[in-house]
Amino acid sequence: MTAKDELELIAVEDIKVKKGMTVEEMLQAMGRAGGFTAQKLADATDIAEAMVKDKDCLKILSFPACIMATGTRGVIVDMVKNHMVDLIITTCGTLDHDLSRTFAAYYKGDFQMDDAMLREKYEISRLGNVLVPDECYGIVLEDELLPMFDEIFEGKDSMSTHEIIDAVGARLDNEDSLLYQCHKNNVPIVVPGITDGSFGCQLWMYYQTHRKFRIDLFADEQMLSEMTNHAEKTGAIAIGGGISKHHVIWWNQFRGGLDYCIYLTTAQEYDGSLSGARIREAVSWGKVRSGAKKMTVEGDATIHLPIIYAGLVERLL
Prior knowledge:
This protein has a domain at 92-185 and 194-228: 3-Layer(aba) Sandwich (Deoxyhypusine Synthase), CATH 3.40.910.10. It contains 14 helices and 11 strands. The protein is globular, with a radius of gyration of 21 Å. A 6-stranded parallel beta sheet has the order 7-2-1-9-10-11, with helices on both faces. The chain has a 3-stranded antiparallel beta sheet with strand order 3-5-4. A two-stranded parallel sheet has the order 6-8. It is α/β, with parallel strands linked by helices and 317 residues long.
């Protein structure tokens, strides 16, 4: 039998854009188009649909903090509200941006703005093309968090990150807040690098007058171990890399790997970084099953995640 005889040849079809076309129709057309990232995005949406519909699957979402400074925060919040996520692993800045935007506003900017001018004249920090005024960030967090910590930690010598974050979320009353929605929908948020941000700095400030207090990271790890090991199946959408992504795949190696896996990344793999590593590399570590439904999609998650979610909404809700 020749190599050609073994191939399943599927013809490339042109995308036909029409007025009133739905996101689902566009995704279906991308799936038939055969190139390049469009095909991957369509396939990733199919995998996400299968993962969400699988009642036996523990659904994990990991992402870096920068996403929360953008309007894509609303997509993540809606995914939690619509029970498409069971567990979130992220970085400290996610808490910073969610809380800051709960109490104040961020603003649209540009990548090419004069950074010295922003700092010296306006006391504004630039996150890509998002502007974060000082009074909307550190000042807000200091004013809001320290009184919460006094209440949350009263009579306690230690708490895990997911317990602290849940307790803060319970004290918010904002439907647009990720922390509030995760508390409301019983979705734990784990932040392994809890001191790497303003939220963590406020914890350190509390520690200055409460020297016995400890953050129980082992309690977070115990919960992750139990959640993954007890799950019949596991699946993940991992945005970017770093500590959040690695925590997802790390704990899944002890159960034989993820059953569903989607990577959304802008990084290249030639430098050996975790952000750039493709799913096939995780298969070699046993962190993703070789037979898993899996897809790596290269590109900006602020574009791809909303499209994937919009497809899921049209298919499932």
